[in-house]
Amino acid sequence: MGEFKMINNEKSLILAIETSCDETSAAVIRNGNEILSNVVSTQIDIHKRFGGVVPEVASRLHVEQITLVIEEAMTQAHVDYEDLAAIAVTEGPGLVGALLIGVNAAKAIAFAHGLPLIGVHHIAGHIYANQLVQALQFPLLALVVSGGHTELVYMKDDGHFEVIGETRDDAAGEAYDKVARTLKLPYPGGPHIDRLAHEGTATIPFPRAWLEEGSYDFSFSGLKSAVINYMHNAEQRGEDISPADVAASFQESVVEVIVSKTIKAAKEYEVKQVLLAGGVAANKGLRASLQKEMSIFTDKELIIPPLSLCTDNAAMIGAAAFIRLKQGKLGNLALNGNPGLDLEDM
Questions:
Q1: From CA 287, how far away is CA 282, in angstroms rounded?
Q2: 162-176 in b/e burial notation, b at 16+ Cβ within 10 A?
């Protein structure tokens, strides 16, 4: 139902919308690599009082902000709807209520203006955020590290995703938030752990979960439990602990495993580029370690997006949507929010 025809436009302008979690964002992207506007309304200060994202609150805040954010993105880009080649929106994964706000806004605009509608996978967006920095060269390896995802994705060409490693339990970002809570640090915990880690020394021998030989999967649940147990036991014995040393030791364990597996996969798959993507890509410890270890290669390039493109934003959705527009992979008015959307199915 509601099929849309392809629009040929030499200068393809895409209005993109992102509402998968706690940021309401809209952007206008030209040719998949040029940002004309990228407006983000964050909900962090609201959710901070609850110690995490409350789905119902997130959905209500998206409703309040979505129209204003879209209008501001169009105004900043100095474009009208008749200038657009398509409307793109995060289809999933994410919080279903939050996704539905963006999806329905995108469907309404597409229907009203007769524009193609493009559903985008949230993780594909994080990967293609790097295209806004530099042209992608295939084959490549993307390291995606966020609150809900820790994955190694091999791409032999545009729009082709093969997940060669993923988390079996807690994602890295989730482990950061839980450890931060134990250290009584504010939400979101990742930036606070990262800052504190640079003030301490990694003296505590927390475990590394390497898993079975040859596996590129990740596991951070055991590490998270080890940190919590360490804190609890020290408290029971009345011992003073250094929060900075705990943060440094925890971060070293996470980064060592992630970077080691990334370097190994980059060698095995003989990729031309390694991309860092996702909210935890803003972590200074991870960025520094990956840059250091990647320096051994003369035939592989490391691309790390600026901090503004690491966290959720609509510009990355527009960059990923441009590839789907070129390939004719359009949606229709039956498009729905899909919290369990599989990247490889895209």
A1: 7
A2: ebbbbbeebbbbbbb
DSSP string spanning 78-91? T--GGG-SEEEEEE
Kindly provide the residue ranges of all beta strands, DSSP E only, lying in 202-303, ordered along the sequence: 273-277, 301-303
**3-state SS assignment for residue 229:** helix
Q: Among residues 278, 229, 264, which one has the least CA distance to residue 250?
A: 229
Contact 76, 39 (CB under 8 A): yes
**Residue 114 pLDDT > 80:** yes
The three-state secondary structure class of 248 is helix
Per-residue pLDDT of 250-266, as tens digits, reads 999 999 999 999 999 99
Residue whose C-alpha is closest to residue 228's, from 184, 167, 264, 271 = 184
Torsion angle in degrees (nearest 10) through CA of 29, 30, 36, 41: 0
Q: Which domains does the chain have, with CATH numbers?
A: 13-128+310-345 (3.30.420.40), 137-304 (3.30.420.40)
Cα–Cα distance list, 116 to 14, 135, 156, 200, 324 (Å)? 10, 25, 27, 52, 11
